[in-house]
UniProtKB/TrEMBL annotation:
Keyword Nucleotide-binding included in the entry's annotation: no
Name used for this protein in its record: SDR family oxidoreductase
SUPFAM superfamilies: NAD(P)-binding Rossmann-fold domains (SSF51735)
Recorded superkingdom: Bacteria
Organism of this sequence: Spirosoma sordidisoli
GO molecular function: oxidoreductase activity
Length: 224
């Protein structure tokens, strides 16, 4: 039986690149997003859910558990961005970003990690951001949520050490995905989604006695 990876936000961008990389290396992937239309290819198990809601997260947990297979890798990649500042963001922005970017990862990890602990193996990736360590003027609640996600990653790392479960936070800079559609900047100012996926695979393939705790990866020419 092929090892199982669960990837949220896995239909496009970095999530899609991670799915493609791990499937190419012999995994079967549960791919979750609000819409999974157009997701094609072998070894991909699509599941549609809005992970900004607890109902959506619980539905995904039940689906994964129904497969009766151990989860080898969990990638908490669901996220959204809204520009703004704390004093002028639209009402509800904070709650929306915290639910999507932080609470989804918290509840999904809680729902799946117990079986990992029983197996005494597994690898959890948390898709953070350079915004997890660098506040910027128009980041507002997005930066807050990404700082929180990095904090959660560090807490999980400490809690799961004795259970042989690895935790890796990935902090990508500007990556050429749909979120940058329409930009006038040249492609060489961005990383490619495959760069992040290859970094995740490299971290996963280390020996059992080693873990990459954090991956900070930026465009060669620096932040945008």
């Amino acid at each position: 039986m092929k090892p199982l990876i669960v990837v949220t936000g896995g239909t496009k961008g970095i999530g899609r690149a991670i799915v493609d990389k791990f499937v190419a290396e012999g995994f079967e992937a549960v791919v979750c997003a609000r819409s999974v239309e157009g997701l094609a290819g072998p070894d991909r198990l699509p599941f549609a859910a809005d992970l900004a809601t607890r109902t959506g997260v619980d539905a995904l947990v039940r689906y994964v558990q129904s497969l009766n297979r151990p989860v080898e890798v969990l990638v908490n990649n669901t996220g959204t961005f809204q520009p703004g500042q704390i004093h002028n963001e639209a009402e509800g922005t904070f709650e929306q970003l915290m639910n999507t970017n932080v609470a989804s990862a918290y509840h999904l990890t809680r729902g799946l990690v117990r079986d990992m602990m029983i197996q005494r193996r597994g690898h959890i990736f948390m898709m953070c951001s350079t915004a997890s360590i660098t506040a910027y003027t128009n980041g507002g609640s997005y930066c807050i949520s990404k700082f929180a996600l990095l904090g959660m990653s560090r807490v999980l790392r400490e809690e799961l050490k004795p259970h042989s479960i690895k935790v890796t936070a990935i902090l990508p800079g500007a990556t050429l995905t749909n979120s940058w559609e329409g930009t006038d900047l040249p492609e060489d100012r961005f990383m490619k989604p495959d760069d992040v996926a290859d970094s995740a695979w490299a971290a996963y393939t280390l020996s059992k006695s080693a873990v990459v705790e954090e991956i900070l990866i930026r465009p060669q020419l620096g932040d945008i």
